């Protein structure tokens, strides 16, 4: 019975997404557009690249930008999806709980929906790299890095949806993800900002660069999963409080 109600709540969330065609188009078009267009526009030259654990090496600028932009755009779209999930379902979640749903069932359904979005965006973003010159050394870990970016920023979007209204939340997740992953986490910058290791995009981007150009450190993967777990507990706790009836 509990599983059936969770699936029902999940289906309701999917219907909410279907009512927002702009968001659905964004999930498909934005990752492909940014990755393919930047691959075509970036000069075909070599740049010094700081590979975690292996020092600085010369790499193709096109490949570096594609490797950077894949988890970054997945994180951006994941954040927007998390924001809209929070804004679109808050009232519906409260009504479900009043109608007899357990908060845990609602939380599982919403988390499942966010995970489905993350997997979908990851597939689109990674698929777009196939028409670029990027050839990653560890494809599986590159997919994990992209998915991690989508999920971490998806939860960040949920938190933004709790604090801000829709318009302000869009600005927060848009500029927050871009400044984090494009400025603070840029592997072509020699001196890493002191705040960079503590930001949501650090592990996804570091893992993507490792997977593309170096050797993957399992400690980095574990740190990313731990970061995701902590952010998940905070996000879901806040989500639970917002969904409780007054």
What does this structure look like?
This protein is mainly alpha-helical and 246 residues long. It has one domain (2-243). The chain contains eight helices and two strands, in the order H-H-E-E-H-H-H-H-H-H. The longest helix has 38 residues, at 61-98.
User: Count the strands?
Assistant: 2
The portion of residues forming beta strands comes to under 5%
- Which structural category do the helix and sheet elements fall into? mainly alpha
Note the run of SSEs as H and E.
Answer: HHEEHHHHHH
Alpha-carbon Rg, integer: 18 Å
Number of domains: 1
Largest sheet: number of strands, sense, barrel closure: 2 strands, antiparallel
Q: What distance separates the N and C termini? A: 26 Å
Overall mean pLDDT stands at: 81
Task: Compute the number of helices.
Answer: 8
* Helical coverage, percent range: over 70%
